[in-house]
């Protein structure tokens, strides 16, 4: 009797679009999607990074060369809606959209102080919060079907469940706002599905510029119940699940190594 692959082939032939797919978790979601037989488009604001990431994917999966493409897009630009519509027209039809884009600067700046850098706050919000809203506004027209077979998965952070500490109020605001956005969007654009993945600390290249990385990670390893720092390859599995489960919408998938419990 022939083997059945009805579970592992759920994403086979689907078109998965990944905003922020050139590095970190987004890049690993692209890898996982390719391994599931999907067609993948990665997007980022830096065209050089798009080209480099696309080349890395093709080098790792040469048999999938014709299933991988990349496009530049500046989600913080004033004309972001025009860019989104133009990109969607080039990429359609879309089966799943993954949003992992956004910047997160690790420093000790307290943004709650009177002289906070408002331009920086607004620019970060434009990418992390406003862009996902605009994607959900325009994407339905370009999805492969108006059904739960198609989905959008956003990304927040565990700070929405447990604040990380002083000076993180703005980051917590973005993260918490995305929780509400995902839950309401699943009603606004139903029957398309909308979910959100909420990671804790992840060992990505984002941390490599932090001088205290080794010390911080050593402390986290002792603190986290799993006694290790989650990798982007592990966290990518949450996004794969969100795409494959047609019954999942309005859900928050937390993958934080137990960090919010200790």
Overall description:
The protein is of the alpha/beta class and about 260 residues long. The chain has a single domain, classed as Rossmann fold, CATH 3.40.50. About 40% of the residues lie in helices and about 15% in strands. It has seven helices and seven strands. The chain has helices spanning about 25-35, 45-60, 80-90, 120-140, 170-190, 215-225, 230-245, and strands at about 15-20, 40-45, 70, 95-100, 150-155, 195-200, 250-255. A seven-stranded parallel sheet has the order 3-2-1-4-5-6-7, sandwiched between helices. Strand 5, helix 5 and strand 6 (about 195-200) form a beta-alpha-beta unit. Helix 3 (about 80-90) packs parallel to helix 4 (about 120-140) and helix 4 (about 120-140) runs parallel beside helix 5. The mean pLDDT is about 90. One of its GO terms (molecular function) is oxidoreductase activity. Keywords: NADP, Oxidoreductase. Pfam families: SDR. InterPro entries: NAD(P)-bd_dom_sf, SDR_DHRS6-like, SDR_fam, SDR_PhqE-like.
* Number of individual domains: 1
* Mean pLDDT value: 91
Task: Report the span from N to C terminus.
Answer: 49 Å
In spatial order, strands of the major sheet run 3-2-1-4-5-6-7
Low-confidence region ranges: none
Could you state the order of secondary-structure elements as H and E? EHEHEHEHEHEHHE
InterPro entries: NAD(P)-bd_dom_sf, SDR_DHRS6-like, SDR_fam, SDR_PhqE-like
GO molecular function, one term: oxidoreductase activity
Keywords: NADP, Oxidoreductase
Family: Belongs to the short-chain dehydrogenases/reductases (SDR) family.
């Amino acid at each position: 009797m022939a083997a059945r692959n009805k579970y592992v082939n759920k994403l086979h032939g689907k078109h998965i679009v990944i905003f922020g797919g050139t590095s970190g978790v987004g890049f690993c979601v692209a890898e996982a999607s390719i391994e599931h037989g999907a067609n993948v488009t990665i997007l980022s604001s830096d065209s050089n990074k798009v080209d480099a990431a696309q080349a890395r994917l093709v080098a790792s999966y040469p048999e999938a060369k014709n299933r991988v493409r990349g496009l530049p897009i500046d989600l913080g630009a004033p004309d972001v809606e025009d860019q989104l519509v133009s990109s969607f027209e080039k990429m359609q039809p879309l089966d799943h959209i993954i949003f992992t884009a956004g910047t997160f600067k690790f420093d000790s700046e307290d943004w709650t102080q009177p002289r906070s850098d408002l331009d920086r706050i607004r620019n970060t919000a434009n990418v992390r919060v406003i862009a996902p809203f605009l994607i959900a506004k325009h994407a339905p027209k370009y999805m492969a079907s108006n059904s739960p077979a198609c989905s959008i998965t956003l990304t927040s952070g565990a700070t929405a469940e447990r604040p990380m500490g002083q000076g993180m109020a703005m980051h917590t605001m973005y993260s918490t706002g995305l929780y509400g956005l995902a839950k309401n969007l699943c009603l606004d654009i139903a029957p398309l599905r909308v979910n959100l993945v909420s990671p804790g600390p992840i060992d990505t290249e984002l941390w490599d510029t932090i001088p205290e990385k080794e010390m911080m990670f050593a402390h986290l390893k002792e603190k986290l119940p799993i006694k290790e720092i989650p990798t982007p390859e592990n966290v990518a599995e949450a996004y794969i699940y969100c795409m494959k489960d047609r019954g999942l919408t309005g859900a928050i998938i937390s993958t934080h190594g137990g960090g919010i419990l200790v």
